[in-house]
Amino acid sequence: MHIVLVRGTGDIGSAVAHVLRSAGHTVLLHDTPCPSHPRRGMAFVDALYEGTTALEGVLAKRARSLTELQYMAQCGRAVPVTDTEFQEIVERMRPDIVVDARMRKPATPEPQRGLARLTIGLGPNFEAGKNVDAAIETDWGQELGAVLWSGRTRDLAGEPQQIAGHARDRYVYAPLEGVFATPLNVGRMVKQGQETARIGEMPLYAPLRGCLRGLTHHGAWVARGTKVIEVDPRGAAQAAYGLGERARAIAEGVLKAVRSAA
After folding, report:
1. Looking at the predicted structure, is the pLDDT value of residue 24 above 70?
2. Which member of 56, 82, 89, 195 has the greatest number of CB atoms within 10 A?
3. Which CATH number is correct for 3-156+244-261, 3.40.1550, 3.30.110, 1.10.3470, 3.40.50?
4. Angle, vertex CA 188, rays to CA 185 and CA 193, nearest 5
């Protein structure tokens, strides 16, 4: 089995970590300090804020130093989640595989081949054989989760998937950068127009009536244009928790790539 370093504690990176750990691999999960991923009930991101969290029966704990990270990796009781410097982790832990699951979409990813024996990139702007060894298709459709050993993944698509007739209007994007503050939590029911959070003195309102499927953690630093609130108009709280359909398909694609390269 391999040591796998997964970049990104959002719902996609967390699904990758969950699936690879369940397959017997040692998984390390990395992110920047105070990340703003909103789908917290579908991710391990809260470990960076609260010390521990769980996702579908898998425990994650924050590792505050490289020494703690190394100990937790050897212990194996929980997925270690860390925001220590990425290059230092690579040098100390020497992962067999690096998976970039940051899902930064418009950003052009830096070349990552050579960071490990196998590097895998998820989503737009990755090209297998160029900036990573393998790329995974993350766009909805028949190719979702497909492994590419050559060529580029699809470019960033337009509108999000619809839920109960709502697509982009389900989301709230940060109108300015700053510290995100909210008294609410994922899974909470909200009314349309209800104040849900603030960035500085700027109030943010629920765009629809429904359940908070996504809500950035209180205290996170958010950049302008970042997705910070998501409302599920179906109103079912359980839809805010666990591995999502798309995230699981992408994670299974990563597992397939790992097995193919073994």
Report:
1. yes
2. 82
3. 3.40.50
4. 100
